[in-house]
Design goal:
With 61 residues, the chain is an all-alpha fold. It has helices spanning 5-17, 21-43, 47-60.
């Protein structure tokens, strides 16, 4: 399920208001880590790109 951006922001703000400072820090650390993982995943080659690279490697040996 993917929430619209405005709805997601509203839910994060609501949750953040209920957290202690330490919990909020941990929560924001998790969000930062997830953002990095998404960027890393976007940079990974797709399955077809990987297959093409493997085919080239095999042809070169």
């Amino acid at each position: 399920m993917r929430l619209p951006t405005k709805s997601l922001i509203a839910k994060i703000e609501s949750l953040s208001a209920q957290l202690s400072p330490e919990q909020l820090k941990d929560f924001l650390d998790v969000l930062d880590s997830m953002a990095v993982m998404v960027e890393d995943a976007k940079a990974m080659p797709t399955t077809s790109e990987t297959s093409e690279l493997n085919a080239v490697k095999l042809a070169m040996h």
